[in-house]
Amino acid sequence: MLNLDMDIEADLGIDSIKRVEILSAIEEKMPDLPSVSPEIMGKLKTLGQIAEHLSGAVKTDEHKPQKIENSLNKVNNATAPADKPVDKIDRKTVSMVETPLSYTKKLSIPAGRKVYIIEDKNGLSQAIADELTSFNIDAMVVSLKALKEKKDLPPAGGLVIGATGSQDEAFLKDAFGVISLIARQLIDSAAQGGAVFATITSLDGAFGFKGKGMANPVSGGLAGLAKTASIEWDGVRCHAIDIEPDWKDKKGIAKNIAAELLNPDPSGSVETGLNSNMRLTLELVSSPYPQSAIDIYLNQDDVVVITGGAKGVTAAAAYALAKHAKPVLVLLGRSPHPSPEPEWLASAYDETAIKKAIIENELNKKDASPALLEKLFKKHLTNREISKNMQKLRETGATALYYSVDVRDFHAVNSVLDDVRSAHGTIKGIIHGAGILKDRFITDKTIEQFERVFDTKVKGLKTILEATKPDSLKYIVLFSSITARIGNKGQADYAMANEVLNKTAQQESINRPECKVISINWGPWDGGMVSPALKREFARNNIKLIPIDSGAMCMLREMTGDKDSPVEVVVGAEILTQQNKEAVKTKSFAVKQAPSLKKKDKLSLMIKREIDVDRYPILKSHVLGGKPVVPFALIAEWLGHGALHGNPGLFFHGLDDIQALNGIKLDQQKKVIRLMAGRPVKKGPFFEVDVEIRDGIKDGMDIVHYRAKAVLTGSFSQPPHFDRPKKIDSRPYPMSIEEIYDKILFQGIELQGIEEITDYSSNRMVARISAAPLPAKWMVEPLRSRWIGDPLVLDSAFQMAILYCFNETGLVSLPNYTSSYRQYQKAFPLDEVTAALEVKKMTKHKITCDFTFLDKNNIVVARLTGYEAVMDTSLLKAFSIASARRST
User: Fold this and answer.
1) Is the pLDDT of residue 397 over 70?
2) How far apart are CA 24 and CA 843, in angstroms?
3) pLDDT tens across 427-437, in order?
4) Which of 82, 123, 507, 693 could form a disulfide bond with 217, CB atoms 3.0-4.6 angstroms apart?
């Protein structure tokens, strides 16, 4: 997909630092290549220019192009559905369990924070507020609008939002909008002592599982929000509560709701059903598939409408149904109707050949950016896949039709179905498989992203049900998700939408006694929306994916069950055990007879913080290229925090293998970071803890910024001996301290820690450095009152490396890796430290050196070895911009 004219930074997103790292690594591993001097480095703007400069390189064997795999290939090779085993794919159903209710208060909300109860029309919200107030919890009733506008309201320590009336999809969207605004307040409150979040519905007192129907199944989507929040929000107690609709004693209801809010469930359940005489929780129990022979009551004249297009999972489901029953299949998808492929593309099969053909026939090479090329590539690939899938469906003997339509558009869908009825008769079945993902945490997701995901599922289902009102349906099959049952980070919208599908299915099964209704909460498939990156993550965590053809067979098995079989089922449920063992601290389920899986420990969330210049004013002194950047020295402090947070009684001794994977730049006004840590592993007298700093989610996975292995100890050993270097070839540094901060270094006044350079020679530098002020001077609400190390000392040491590079080469440097850091005291001195830099290696683009930090008595406080920093001419511009801004 690469074009030699692509700009390295503008088109490929490789900044100058990463470019230096890449070319430096190439030079080290392939020393026979022509060298790339700093002067030339800044001039190599494109892939072609780099290739031309390195044109003397020996060409390697080209990899043999691979044919593109997609769901079509899997469908083509599929045997008859009945031959595909499904018993190896776990299936679970939901069971109600009566559990005790506790009235002992165990929740503490920090002073100055309120628990907000969203107002309702029946007075229950006020009754809940009064009950919480009786337990000395500061609670008040407020409207969604007032909370959204946040006019003069104290910060939240809790939020209770209910849908006990006739609320619709718009209410769920408004609720999400408010919760996304309040989320950070709740997370902060939890870190300070306690926080609670709850949703309240009035379905049937058991989230619809009593099988008696419900007045407002749409409101059931709120539970999906609570289950997702329980995973994303560390320390916040999350509850989804469903009340028996016939229970009218508001005071009694409020008393039991308050008891839920004040007490964590010992089983870890998020979902609780409350009735006047009992409390119910939900369990997932392994359950066999319907054992009857596959007997689906559809014939060749019956029309089945399938949403979700003619690709991936829904195409496989359609193919399995076509093989078995040969009905008239009407596939609805967003992609354009398939068209004949151009002749120039017909002979291209692998990705390289297809993209080359696109560039030569559809694009001017000058315009072929990766984004545009990828867009056209996917368009042609989709057209090819849909065409071949539709052909394959017709080869089964079934009638197969494809319509390009937005399933959210009622008039368009209704018009299509009217045409279908005119040609083929009434509709007998619906398979609703349409869905998209836009993974973002609740704190980061916009309402536009929420609506796109939510409406595709919910509005799409509403549209298709409304458009088939005249028809006597035999089957309604909804493709829900395991995310609805247990929640999943980044997928609040998807969890809520699929919970609406689940509850709608429950209600439709009551309203349509002659129709088989099933909502399948699928685990991850080996296809569809599961991207290659997600597949690798699932494989790393030993999570099994549902094979495409076997999953389609599971659907057929569910369709054969009698009308009294469960409406909601979970298929591919091995993932449940996985999430039990890992990051889900507050679980929404209990699992019986679940298979035991062994795997290495995962990292757990220790601390979550919102970063901006208001909360961290120190960042105003560390601005590069116009953007605040978190200093590498402060990163080391945070990694230490992450390791110590879950290991009280131990002391911070150091870090190994500190990797800077993706610097934390405030591209926007705010960024949320998470400190993650694994379990301590005993190594001799020390304990090792894997630590990471992450934020956001991309392609379903966390973005990792920094990674290291922390070393903790119960007691400190004697520090190593260090002899100060003799001043054999020492000479004064050619600039004063005022000049280096004015003309070379970019750090602002708060990070100007170098007081005096006392020694400078060909391979070393020694300087006196100021100690950092207390953390409260640098940030609002610091994690500790004292530093673990000293970020000003570390940052000033890195500044020494910059000065050394500048004087020797005329270039400046920024850190990207450190092999080891060891600290031999609980804390650094409070006045000043002497830092000794020793250069170990220096190339055209990288410096490697060691630092030793000494107190006034020449005792080693800490050592940092294997420090690596990259050098580049482009950094001079970023440094000079910062200096110019500081001067003005």
Assistant:
1) yes
2) 8
3) 999 999 999 88
4) 507
Asked if residue 2 lies in contact with residue 370, where contact means CB atoms within 8 angstroms, the answer is: yes
- More confident: 391 or 886: 391
Residue among 490, 432, 498, 495 at smallest CA distance from 466: 432
Q: How many whole angstroms separate alpha carbon 337 and alpha carbon 770?
A: 69
Residues 528-543: pLDDT tens digits? Answer: 666 665 666 566 556 6
For 788-852, where are the alpha helices, taking DSSP H only? 791-809
Strand partners, 659: 707, 817
In percent, the amount of the chain with pLDDT more than 70 equals 83
Neighbours of 636 (CB within 10 A): 27
Which amino acid appears at position 874 of this protein?
S
The Cα–Cα gap between 816 and 658 comes to 8
CA atoms within 13 A on the CB side of 524: 24
How far apart (Å, rounded) are the C-alpha atoms in residues 40 and 292? 73
Q: Mean pLDDT across the chain, nearest whole number?
A: 84
Of 718, 660, 711, 716, the residue nearest 820 (C-alpha): 711
What's the 3-state SS for 393-441? HHHCCCCEEEEECCCCCHHHHHHHHHHHHHHHCCEEEEEECCCCCCCCC
Report the C-alpha gap between 343 and 580 in whole angstroms.
53
CA atoms within 13 A on the CB side of 713: 15
* Spatial distance between the Cα atoms of 676 and 606, rounded to a whole number of angstroms: 5
Per-residue pLDDT of 215-246, as tens digits, reads 789 999 999 999 999 999 988 999 999 999 99
**pLDDT (0 to 100) of residue 363:** 82
